[in-house]
């Protein structure tokens, strides 16, 4: 059997200024100097639903410290606090971040969470700069305050003194640093009694599962967790030799992608929802049975599986046969439109681009990333300096070198082997310890980086009792990994998040 490399794929996959301690950051740049809390404040307003929402924007840092209170890092954030709402200290507060590990929070920030957003096309390459910024009519700022977090090694955040990056770069190391950040933030801004939420994208969902457990250890419960394009069990997205689960849970994403790109031999399904359910059921039954049988599979059964797989994925029977019925996501991205000279996007399969070397087994680039990365990076750097008033000398790091990342949980599976990370038990533990904790799972059905059915399968296998399984709500978007890049889907995002927050907090009585 041909080998398949075991690779951890980087998941991605953005007024009047009143500077406060604006020069302190420059002094802190000297690794021998004691860092000083710094912040840049500005006042703004935005019209949402016919109402004027006034707010303070704060670009600032929290100093992380060790057990001896020696400074270890400066963790930067951008926070938005509504100022013309009753009971400001009791408003819900959302702590949000992207993934990577190693990605700064500018994607969510400039795509959907902040009061200003960058305008990108529905699907396709963004034109060269300048990139337009607009008021975000779908921000949640009218019902919740928002804190965009850049973990250590991303954005403006960095270790200080003699502290090494490895102190923060790992599954639990990262969660410990953010636990301390949240604890210190709640004290600094007097928000200990606010309803609290975590919102993470991609590896940010991994982070949220571990962070929720660490926060509980610090006596900090949450009202809700929003998982955007989730991966908790990395067994579902890696394709090592001998694996079966990743192939099973990825097939539904291949099917909806092939349907969108008009690559199915039977044409586009008339009812996409019914088609998804049909493929999901086939994947966990007939397809799974054939894979589990391995070389002992009945030849007729194997032939039926190959034929059905062609109908569901658009791949040729010859290719499926040569792949031994096991096609990884990168292989699918390269093969589906090979004859058209195109590769399929990993983060958003609706994006396609020139294939490059026609003989390569996997794509050389992700068309979605190359289409929008410049727009988001440029827009945030313009926004944070020109509108939020940041004038420090640091360059914003959109994707940091946060490695090597420690994936070991200390719970070896035997023979000293750490195993493939699976933090679903962390989330299950957090829910069992706090039965009022609710989870909102947001999927993009055209996401090949963190496939929607892989996330659903993971949730269904967390060994929660039925009443607690009801704590998890699912929302599917006709989008990829970053559903907020598409203007038409922003109302769905707003409606989904607003209903979740209002149900899990008392914010409804505070609305004006």
Characterize the structure shown.
- This protein has two domains: 16-235 and 373-510, Alpha/Beta hydrolase fold, catalytic domain (Rossmann fold), CATH 3.40.50.1820; 239-367, no CATH class.
- 33% of the residues lie in helices and 18% in strands.
- The chain has 14 helices and 15 strands.
- With 512 residues, the chain is α/β, with parallel strands linked by helices.
- The strands form three sheets. Strands 1, 2, 3, 4, 5, 8, 9, 10, 11, 14 and 15 form an eleven-stranded mixed β-sheet that branches. A two-stranded antiparallel sheet has the order 6-7. Strands 12-13 form a two-stranded antiparallel ribbon.
- α3 (171-188) packs across α4 (203-217) and α5 (245-260) packs antiparallel against α12.
Describe the structure concisely.
This protein has helices at 24-28, 106-113, 171-188, 203-217, 245-260, 272-293, 299-313, 317-322, 329-335, 367-386, 424-433, 452-460, 466-469, 490-504; strands spanning 16-20, 39-48, 51-65, 71-82, 93-97, 116-118, 133-135, 145-149, 158-159, 196-202, 224-230, 342-344, 352-354, 438-444, 472-477. It is α/β, with parallel strands linked by helices.
Name of the CATH class of the largest domain: Alpha Beta
Q: How many strand units?
A: 15
Helix content: 25-40%
How many helices? The count is 14
Using the coordinates shown, work out and report the CATH topology of the largest domain: Rossmann fold
What gap, in angstroms, lies between the N and C termini? 64 Å
CATH architecture label name of the largest domain = 3-Layer(aba) Sandwich
* Cα radius of gyration in angstroms: 23 Å
What is the H-and-E element order?
Answer: EHEEEEHEEEEHEHEHHHHHEEHHEHHEH
The parts where pLDDT drops under 50 for at least 5 residues are 1-31, 507-512
User: Structural class of the helices, strands and pairings?
Assistant: alpha/beta
Largest sheet: 11 strands, mixed
């Amino acid at each position: 059997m041909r080998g398949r490399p075991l690779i951890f794929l980087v998941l991605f996959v953005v007024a009047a200024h009143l500077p406060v301690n604006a020069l302190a950051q420059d002094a802190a740049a000297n690794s021998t100097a004691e860092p000083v809390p710094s912040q840049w404040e500005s006042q703004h307003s935005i019209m949402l639903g016919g109402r004027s929402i006034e707010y303070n924007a704060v670009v600032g840092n929290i100093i992380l410290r060790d057990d001896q209170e020696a400074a270890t890092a400066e963790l930067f954030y951008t926070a938005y606090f509504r100022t013309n709402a009753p009971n400001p200290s009791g408003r819900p507060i959302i702590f949000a971040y992207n993934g990577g590990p190693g990605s700064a929070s500018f994607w969510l920030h400039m795509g959907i969470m902040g009061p200003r957003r960058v305008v990108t096309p529905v699907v396709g390459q963004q034109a060269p700069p300048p990139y337009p910024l607009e008021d975000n009519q779908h921000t949640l700022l009218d019902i919740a305050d928002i804190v965009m977090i850049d973990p250590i090694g991303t954005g403006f955040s960095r270790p200080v003194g003699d502290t090494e990056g490895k102190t923060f770069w790992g599954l639990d190391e990262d969660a410990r640093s953010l636990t301390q950040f949240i604890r210190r933030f709640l004290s600094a801004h007097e928000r200990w009694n606010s309803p609290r939420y975590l919102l993470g994208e991609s590896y940010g969902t991994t982070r949220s599962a571990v962070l929720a457990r660490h926060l509980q250890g610090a006596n900090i419960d949450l009202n809700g967790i929003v998982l955007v394009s989730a991966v908790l069990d990395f067994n579902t997205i890696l394709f090592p030799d001998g694996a079966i689960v990743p192939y099973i849970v990825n097939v539904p994403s291949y099917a909806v992608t092939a349907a969108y790109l008009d690559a199915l031999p039977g044409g586009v399904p008339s009812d996409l929802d019914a088609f998804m359910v049909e493929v999901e059921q086939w994947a966990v039954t007939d397809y799974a049975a054939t894979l589990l049988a391995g070389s002992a599979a009945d030849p007729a059964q194997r032939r039926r599986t190959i034929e059905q797989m062609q109908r569901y994925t658009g791949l040729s029977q010859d290719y499926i046969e040569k792949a031994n019925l096991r096609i990884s996501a990168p292989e699918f991205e390269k093969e589906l439109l090979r004859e058209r000279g195109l590769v399929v996007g990993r983060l958003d399969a609706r994006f396609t681009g020139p294939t490059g070397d026609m003989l390569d087994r996997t794509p050389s680039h992700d068309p979605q990333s190359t289409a929008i990365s410049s727009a988001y990076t440029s827009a945030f750097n313009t926004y944070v300096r020109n509108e939020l008033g940041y004038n420090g000398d640091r360059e914003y790091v959109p994707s940091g070198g946060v490695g090597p990342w420690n994936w070991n949980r200390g719970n070896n599976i035997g023979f000293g082997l750490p195993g493939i990370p699976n933090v679903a038990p962390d989330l299950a533990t957090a829910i069992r310890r706090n039965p009022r904790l609710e989870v909102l799972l947001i999927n993009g059905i055209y996401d090949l980086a963190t496939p929607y059915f892989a996330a659903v399968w993971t949730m269904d296998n967390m060994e929660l009792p039925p009443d607690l399984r009801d704590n998890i709500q699912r929302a599917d978007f006709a989008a990829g990994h970053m559903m907020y890049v598409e203007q038409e889907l922003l109302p769905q995002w707003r409606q989904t998040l607003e209903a979740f927050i209002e149900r899990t907090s008392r914010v409804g009585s505070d609305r004006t």
